[in-house]
Amino acid sequence: MADLRHNEGHANCFANSDPSRLFASMTRLALQLAYDGGDFSGFAALPGRRTVQGEFERVLAKLLDRPCPLVCAGRTDAGVHAYGQLVSFETTAGLPPETL
Fold first, then answer.
1. Which domain holds residue 79?
2. What CATH number is attached to the domain comprising 69?
3. How many whole angstroms separate alpha carbon 2 and alpha carbon 11?
4. Short-list 48, 41, 53, CA closest to 77
5. Chain-centre distance for alpha carbon 52
6. pTM score, whole prediction
């Protein structure tokens, strides 16, 4: 079995997971977002820029106590608003969706 704890892009989501229980405890959450993009440099994370993805991943890292990258179904440019944008992430943290 592949060691998914070191899978590029998701390494930190699974950092403290027991590989034998990984698939049984992994959860993929999908969220529908709405935001005013006026104060953001678009959706996609950019080093040194305030972006929707960057801010959302920062908050997720605090909630989950580890970085966890988002997967998005679309992106917006700087200053563009969104209603109904879909994002998802995988975690083994056991976080109830209501917490988000």
1. 4-14+29-92
2. 3.30.70.580
3. 13
4. 41
5. 11
6. 0.71
User: Is the four-CA dihedral 31, 35, 39, 42 of positive or negative sign?
Assistant: positive
Average pLDDT of the segment spanning 26-36? 90
> In this predicted model, what pLDDT tens digit does every residue of 42-75 receive, in sequence order?
999 999 999 999 999 999 999 888 888 999 988 8
CA distance 60 to 64: 6
So what's the pLDDT on residue 100?
Answer: 65
Q: Which of 18, 36, 39, 77 is catalytic?
A: 77
77 is catalytic: yes
Closest CA to 69 of 6, 21, 10, 4: 10
